[in-house]
Give the backbone structure.
Amino acid sequence: MNTFKKGSKKLLNAWAFYDWANSVYTLTIASSIFPIFYSALFLSEIKTVHAFGMDFKSTALITYVTAFTFLVVAFTSPILSGIADYVGNKKNFMKFFCYVGGLGCIGLYWFSLENIHVSLLFYFMGLIGYWGSLVFYNSYLPDIAFPEQQDSISAKGFSFGYIGSVLLLLINLAMVMTQDNGEAKMQMMRYSFITVGLWWILFSQYTFYILPSGVSSGHKVTKDVVFNGLKELRQVWKQLKENLRLKRYLIAFFVFSMAVQTIMLVAVYFGEEEIAWGTDGDKTIGLIVSILVIQLVAILGAYLTSLASSKFGNIKTLIVVNVIWMALCFYAFFMYTPLQFYVAASIVGLVMGGIQALARSTYSKFLPETEDTTSYFSFFDVAEKIGIVIGMVIFATIDQITGSMRNAILFLFVFFLIGIVLLLRVPKEDVN
């Protein structure tokens, strides 16, 4: 068994390398190739599918399934985290979710409308595997790195993930675009799902080999242990009532994050359905180029947002960023051409990375002096996931009822407006 000291370079790099392994899921499956593949399965003008005893609009169905998955993650992650901490085997939990996710990606090779329920199960496995493993991956950070190392190694993980995911996406794009006809392109997309699953599982082995398993306590898992994580969340909620600034900020975050995460999860489906690309080849290239633009611009956006927050303050910067998101929703309603979509993608990239990083760091700054930061961040993560569930369900329902994603994305305008009003109500100083 390998034992490396906390803060050692090899241990830190092994932890960060998991980003290289799992980030291919978010770029190829969640953001680019799979949404294009899924939309291409529907050849008719009326894109509907029969599932769970109902007829669904194609985009509404996948949005509902995504929302359900996040609901499962929101309720299980604090329970599983509590168990893993108690029995000291978080690596086994992380492995389990990694393998479930990787196998789910490989299973997408057989995705078809004829076997929609099994197909959606594979999609569910990939999504829950990614987010489930991330819970335990993030919880390793204070175990393997000292406080002064955590920012830099976290950024290194992000860099590894970006490089690895873009590299595989370019390979997948080459696989698809070298084919002459639609059927061959679809087959290459299926192969790309296998490459994601294998990449994720194989490259994670180095991380699993180096990371410590955790200190085994030998304790048995009891009913109290199972619900300990939920009890901690309830305790945080009680403490929040005594901290007006933190409570008001968290409510504002819940509202605007709901809209931000929803847009990020449905953006490619929107682009595929609502933009006039011309040929299928133009559509595939256009959507993937848009994703790469968002990824590149997000790095610049995170830097500029950080710069603005240091000069004008976190809350003022978040308000401005929310105003930009609000304008984007309005702009998207009137967006029809590829050029307009590229412009929107550039602006999304600019405000995407920045709002996520700033939202989390603002929460961290507003925390009271406490050693139990894990419970507070667990509460933050659960709030974010529940926000995603509500946002996705509202989006899917409007899409399903009106038959247009444009109406759904315009409705998100309201959440950003409410978010701005709530941010304006956050006190400048601690108020107990």
